[in-house]
Design goal:
The protein has 97 residues and is an all-alpha fold. It has four helices and no strands. The chain has helices at 6-17, 31-45, 51-66, 80-96.
């Protein structure tokens, strides 16, 4: 997943339309790209080869997070920021479904 997928680009566009910041005050990439890159990182850690492959597991992962689980089935620790990103990605998926 070195090149951005259509799903990743669409997620970035979704975040921009929700008024998430693209560039920080000091000129660095901001929330839009942080969220986008976190989703890709979680997919890689969970050994998915694409966001499309990850989608069927996303709802279950969100349910587990809502029930207080801090690790995925593969043992990846999900921190507070990852949880926010996963929820926002799930919201994005629901808008395009």
């Amino acid at each position: 997943m070195d090149k951005k997928s259509i799903a990743q680009l669409a997620f970035e566009y979704f975040l921009l339309n929700k008024n998430y910041s693209e560039v920080s005050e000091n000129g660095n990439d901001s929330t839009v790209y942080d969220y986008s890159n976190r989703i890709v990182r979680i997919c890689k850690q969970e050994e998915y080869h694409s966001l499309d492959e990850f989608l069927p597991s996303l709802r279950d992962l969100i349910t587990e997070i809502d029930n207080g689980v801090d690790k995925t089935k593969k043992g990846t620790f999900i921190d507070k920021n990852d949880k926010s990103v996963l929820r926002k990605f799930y919201e994005f998926i629901l808008t395009i479904s």
